[in-house]
Amino acid sequence: MFKEQFNHLKQKNNNQGFTLIEILIATSIFAIGFLAVAAMQISASKSTRRAVEVTEATAIASDQMERLMSLPFDDGELVTGATYSDTQGKYNLQWEVVFSDVIITGTTTVDAKTINLNVSWDRVLSSGSSQRSVNIDFIKPNPIYIE
Questions:
Q1: DSSP state, 115?
Q2: For position 37, what pLDDT does the model report?
Q3: Which ranges constitute the DSSP H helices of the chain?
Q4: What backbone phi and psi angles, to 5 degrees, belong to 141?
Q5: 124: nearest Cα among 24, 40, 53
Q6: How many CB atoms sit inside 10 A of residue 134's CB?
Q7: How many secondary structure helices (H) and strands (E) does the chain include?
């Protein structure tokens, strides 16, 4: 009978659970995995912010291009050789007007202005001077000469 009780006690001692070393290893593995996920989240957040900024700058550049295209050919904002500036929030717009001849057909040349539009901004989440920009070049023909 004592032998049965001793065997019963011996079995209870074998089922003690996890050791401290096993718990430390499991916690370390969990911490490494958690830190990797946190690093991915930070990277994804920065990429999303960068994409939002580029999208906003492209929309501003597109709106400005459409506005300049709707102006008369001889408007004060489209003087050849001049550089103009504007600001919309954190975005700086700058455009330069250049005169050029554009050949539409083999025999007809049309007066046109090439406009170089640049939208630039400072990155919010970066250290130092890190500036980004979006550029659009487009041609505004003189509607008088278009047949």
A1: E
A2: 94
A3: 2-14, 20-70
A4: -80, 155
A5: 53
A6: 20
A7: 2, 4
**Pair of tokens at residue 81:** 């050789």
- Residue 89 region by backbone torsions, left for phi larger than 0, else alpha for psi between -120 and 50, else beta: left
* CA 6 – CA 36 distance, rounded (Å): 49
The one-letter amino acid at 92 = N
**Cβ atoms of 135 and 103 closer than 8 Å:** no
pLDDT, residue 74, reads 86
The one-letter amino acid code at 10 reads K
Domains of the chain, by residue range, sit at 19-141
For residue 94, which of 121, 116, 74, 71 has the smallest C-alpha distance?
Answer: 116
Spell out the per-residue pLDDT of the chain, length 147, in tens.
556 665 655 555 555 677 889 999 999 999 999 999 999 999 999 899 889 999 999 999 999 999 999 999 888 888 888 899 999 989 999 999 987 777 666 666 778 889 999 999 987 665 555 789 999 999 888 877 555
pTM over 0.90: no
Closest CA to 94 of 128, 53, 137, 125: 137
